């Protein structure tokens, strides 16, 4: 959140507002928009400002998983550079055990090579999932529904399993990219708020970029080291798409940079050099 970022450089040059948004589509395609301050109808919550390590940190006051509601105050960093969501206790246990008590599938026991603790077997002919909704109430009362809380894995002989894509953290809480799926996240550095609004990332207004074709082989792949499938955790009877066999994420608590993050870094660096040339000339 310091003044060394691309949004800061563009804002200080008078080229954009001091705000930006990142959109995470269900198909793995995303969009970053510098100067975007969101809309009047978006959900919002204030940033927690800490002078020593300023970050996009917000507070939550309640966790809802299906019919289980728990009042709990905790803070977390919204970090698009982390593929999955990392939470420490008690938030991790509350979400995981509430989810586990309400799913209908049998728990999958052989998850030694996965960082996820709560995984479940899918039957051979199963075509849909009925999952409990996961919802976070933010400071100020706005609701943040998690659209895609699971990942699906291919097992041997054509069988599949899914996991609650939540990792137990030993230190800080991080809301990762998987919990941001289906939203345009607005990081407003002028109002010092995080905003969010449902989006498929193709409906951006006043965009000067061409539409991205998700079937194009040159498109940026999804950020997750395990490929999330198009399943919706917040809707009954969500369809199951057969995934390709993914490589599992590392079984540790360290956030991992990926190709999506690397691509963004190249974009950021290019814009930085371009902005520096403009300001210096």
From TrEMBL:
Q: What is the lineage of its organism?
A: Eukaryota, Viridiplantae, Streptophyta, Embryophyta, Tracheophyta
PROSITE patterns the UniProt entry points to: ASP_PROTEASE (PS00141), PEPTIDASE_A1 (PS51767)
- Name under which the protein is recorded: Aspartyl protease family protein
Q: What are the start and end residues of every segment in region (Disordered)?
A: 212-255
Task: Look up and give the organism this protein is from.
Answer: Actinidia chinensis var. chinensis
InterPro entries documented for this protein: Aspartic_peptidase_A1, Aspartic_peptidase_AS, PEPTIDASE_A1, Peptidase_aspartic_dom_sf, TAXi_C
Keyword terms, alphabetized: Hydrolase, Membrane, Protease, Transmembrane, Transmembrane helix
A Gene Ontology biological process in which this protein takes part is:
proteolysis
The record's annotation in SUPFAM superfamilies points to: Acid proteases
GO molecular function per UniProt: aspartic-type endopeptidase activity
């Amino acid at each position: 959140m310091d003044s060394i970022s691309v949004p800061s450089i563009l804002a200080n040059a008078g080229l954009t507002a001091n705000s930006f948004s990142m959109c995470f589509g269900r198909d793995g395609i995303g969009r970053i928009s510098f100067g975007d301050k969101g809309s009047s109808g978006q959900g919002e919550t204030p940033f927690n400002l800490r002078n020593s390590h300023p970050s996009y940190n917000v507070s939550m006051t309640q966790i809802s998983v299906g019919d289980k509601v728990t009042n709990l105050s905790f803070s977390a960093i919204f970090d698009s550079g982390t593929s999955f969501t990392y939470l420490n206790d008690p938030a991790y246990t509350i979400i995981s055990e509430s989810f586990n008590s309400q799913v209908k599938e049998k728990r999958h026991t052989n998850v030694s090579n996965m960082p996820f603790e709560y995984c479940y077997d899918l039957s051979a002919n199963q075509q849909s999932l009925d999952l409990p909704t996961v919802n976070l109430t933010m400071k100020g009362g706005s609701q943040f529904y998690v659209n895609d809380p699971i990942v699906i894995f291919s097992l041997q002989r054509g069988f599949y399993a899914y996991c609650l894509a939540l990792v137990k953290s030993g230190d800080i809480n991080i809301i990762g990219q998987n919990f941001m799926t289906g939203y345009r996240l607005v990081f407003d550095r002028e109002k010092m708020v995080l905003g969010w609004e449902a989006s498929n990332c193709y409906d951006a207004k006043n965009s000067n970029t061409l539409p991205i074709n998700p079937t194009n082989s040159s498109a940026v792949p999804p950020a997750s080291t395990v490929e999330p499938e198009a399943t919706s955790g917040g809707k009954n009877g969500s369809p199951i798409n057969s995934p390709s066999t993914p490589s599992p994420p590392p079984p540790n608590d360290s956030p991992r940079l990926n190709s999506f993050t690397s691509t963004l870094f190249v974009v950021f660096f290019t814009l930085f050099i371009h902005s520096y040339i403009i300001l210096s000339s």
